[in-house]
Amino acid sequence: MDFGTISRQRLPELLRAMPKAELHIHIEGSLEPELIFALARKNGVALAWPSVEALRAAYAFTDLQSFLDIYYAGASVLLHESDFEAMAMAYFCRVAADHVVHAEIFFDPQTHTARGVAMGTVIRGLARACERAKRELGVTSALILCFLRHLSEEEAIATLHDALSYREHFIGVGLDSSERGHPPEKFTRVFAEAGKLGLHRVAHAGEEGPPAYIEQALELLHVERIDHGVRCVESPALVKRLAAEGIALTVCPLSNLKLRVFDKLADHNLAELLHAGLKATVNSDDPAYFGGYVNDNFVAIFEALPQLGAAEAYALARNSFDASFVDAAAKRSMTAQLDAAFARFR
Ligand code: HPA
Ligand code: ZN
User: Fold this and answer.
1) Which of 99, 142, 202, 277 is the most exposed, having the fewest neighbouring CB atoms within 10 Å of its CB?
2) How far, in Å, CA of 102 to CA of 327, rounded?
3) Mind listing the pLDDT tens digit for each residue in 59-88?
């Protein structure tokens, strides 16, 4: 495809219009302050902030942990199946407007079961939203169950076993929460069991943690994608390996900015990753907390990095389909939609 005829000026419009898949979104991170307060009121849950404005003002993070403390407090308002459904429907409605055609969505069951919410309440509510998204919005989706890495592997194993009653509702497992001091190797057995069950495997690695954590995720957890992974560039051998094996990185630029992984977007290494032959994608991570949904991430990072143009926009959207866990026919169909969108801009 000839990308030369697409001017820089039209990039934001192209980025917003192109179909894309989102592969790194924590559904609890899509909970907007207004919905947090509405659910708190409905469910009689006390919050530490007096108003929506006060909560938003607290979103001044210094690192991953400072964010996670508020993120878990926000999730405490979720009690009923309908709450989980409402949260996920709000996300789907928002991203349908961003031309997200497919989403693979993380959820953190331990954040809820620890408060006495049943596993079935969480999964059934989210699954109901996924079905509605397909029917009402034409957006396909799948759920990925994440283990909280600051907790023990025994707790992760118990969580997996608890979730197996709802096996048909999720396609894989992931690893999130506090990265430093919680290496992937801690979860070797639970990921092996998930693999035997035919579940896909992904893990957050190389966001705040070192390249060695990415290597462990590949070697010991046998992951198919790395979430974040931006610190891979500190190991040229690892970059080579990720490129050779076609391991996708689900990169989240505004998250990296807000959690100070990079001081400013202009310092972000997305262009470097792509030009090293890595299968990078652009995602929102926790859009309600980091100041933007997936299109905001695309527009902001393309504005900050002059090395990114229409060819990279195409590559990023194409990578999002290639790296997704849908079948080959669905990948072809989404790629055809992408080609049609680009054809309209040439
Ligand atoms: N990193 C780790 N854990 C998370 C994140 C993240 O960016 N978002 C939600 N849980
Ligand atoms: Zn994440």
Assistant:
1) 277
2) 12
3) 999 999 999 999 999 999 999 999 999 999
